[in-house]
User: Which sequence fits this backbone?
């Protein structure tokens, strides 16, 4: 093989997603049968599809390929995608939200639900004993509850575009911070990579964020998982005189 051919082959390999890659992805998932959009990273698509959530942070999503951060069927099909190209991925129901299981459909006395403070309504999703169910029918003092996932048994299509692969420890750590502190600019965190530890200076805007200790612990565990040489993660909060 000539030198130019080898260089072309190497460049092609570097442009393809592999297991373990940190990638930023734009994606939209829809049900093949109905065209219903159930998930998207694009704010305008969310609004036009009627699934917009003001609490959601829209924009490219961090995925570590093979870590199960997305549907199993999507995760394994990310490998081999070309960076920068948009593609459609079809996922059978068994690799998406599973098949419908008749054992997950139960008849519950109406009075039992009322005793739990639940007033069931047709088609509504309710929480019963820590599980989510859809109310399928109400009658004769009984309520039919469907504990299957609403998209169980459905074939799924994802439109996916891998924007880029993240390289280097600092870029990956900032991406992990962005994942655990959604809506906060990852560049606002001070970051210092020492020999076997990582020192993170927290921006003031997150000092009183909800569940901040859980988020910090999650970041530390993420860093230690993906950077095995890191033995400790330090978080510093600096309060300046006003």
Assistant:
């Amino acid at each position: 093989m000539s030198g130019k051919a080898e260089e072309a082959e190497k460049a092609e390999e570097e442009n393809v997603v592999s297991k373990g890659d940190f990638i930023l992805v734009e994606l939209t998932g829809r049900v093949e049968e109905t065209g219903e959009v159930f998930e998207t990273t694009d704010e305008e698509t969310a609004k036009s599809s009627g699934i917009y959530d003001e609490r959601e942070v829209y924009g490219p999503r961090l995925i570590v390929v093979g870590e199960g951060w997305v549907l199993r069927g999507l995760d394994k099909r990310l490998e081999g995608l070309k960076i920068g190209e948009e593609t459609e991925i079809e996922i059978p129901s068994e690799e998406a939200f599973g098949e419908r299981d008749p054992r997950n459909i139960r008849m519950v006395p109406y009075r039992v639900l009322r005793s739990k403070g639940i007033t069931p309504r047709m088609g509504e999703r309710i929480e019963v004993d820590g599980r989510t169910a859809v109310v399928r029918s109400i009658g004769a003092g009984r309520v039919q509850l469907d504990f299957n996932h609403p998209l169980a048994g459905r074939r799924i299509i994802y439109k996916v575009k891998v924007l880029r692969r993240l390289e280097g420890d600092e870029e990956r750590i900032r991406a992990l911070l962005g994942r655990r502190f959604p809506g906060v600019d990852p560049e606002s965190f001070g970051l210092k990579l020492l020999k076997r530890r990582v020192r993170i200076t927290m921006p003031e805007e997150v000092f009183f964020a909800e569940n901040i200790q859980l988020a910090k612990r999650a970041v530390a565990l993420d860093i230690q998982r993906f950077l095995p040489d890191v033995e400790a993660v330090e978080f510093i909060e600096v309060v300046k005189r006003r």
Q: What stands out?
A: The first helix runs from residue 3 to 14.
